[in-house]
Amino acid sequence: MSATAERIKELRTQKKLTQSELSEIIKSSRGTIAKYERDERTPSFAMLSLIADALDTTVDYLQGKTDNALKTAHNASDNGDDKKHVALDDDELIMSFEGKELSEDYKNSILAFVKMLREERK
User: Which residues partner with 97 through β-bridges?
Assistant: First the structure.
């Protein structure tokens, strides 16, 4: 079974959520959650992001890229990592790709998509 399937089920049960309750939070179906947990279906990145938010973790943890299930990043000086970690407010989004600044048009497209997702979740 994949790390994603195992971790979704593990975190859902730790949070004492049923598959139905999780599906309501992310606006999906119970059957879809069951298929993710049985590794019969792979969630898209957008769906993983919604699941991670609902389970108060990160997409990287759900994908098995890290063993740190905590949503908040540690201070860069604590782990020897030279990357900056920032806390983002709801209306603030900082985007870059491999150290290169994204174009304003690309940023605006991403922001519009994020706003649309937020509205759908309400």
Answer: 100
Is 69 within the bounds of a domain?
Answer: no
User: pLDDT truncated to tens, each residue of the chain (122 aa)?
Assistant: 899 999 999 999 999 999 999 999 999 999 999 999 999 999 998 899 999 999 999 999 999 998 888 876 543 444 445 444 444 444 444 555 555 566 777 777 777 777 777 776 65
- Residues 17, 57, single domain; the answer is yes
CA 4 vs. chain centroid, Å, equals 12
Q: What total number of domains does the chain contain?
A: 2
Does residue 113 form part of some domain?
A: yes
Give CA angle at 7 (76, 54), nearest 5°: 75
- Rounded distance between C-alpha atoms, residue 39 and residue 16, angstroms: 20
Torsion of CA 51, 56, 62, 65, to 10 degrees: 140
- CB 42, CB 13: distance < 8 Å: no
List residues bridging with 96 in a β-sheet. Answer: 101
Give the pTM: 0.59
Range of the domain at 15: 3-62
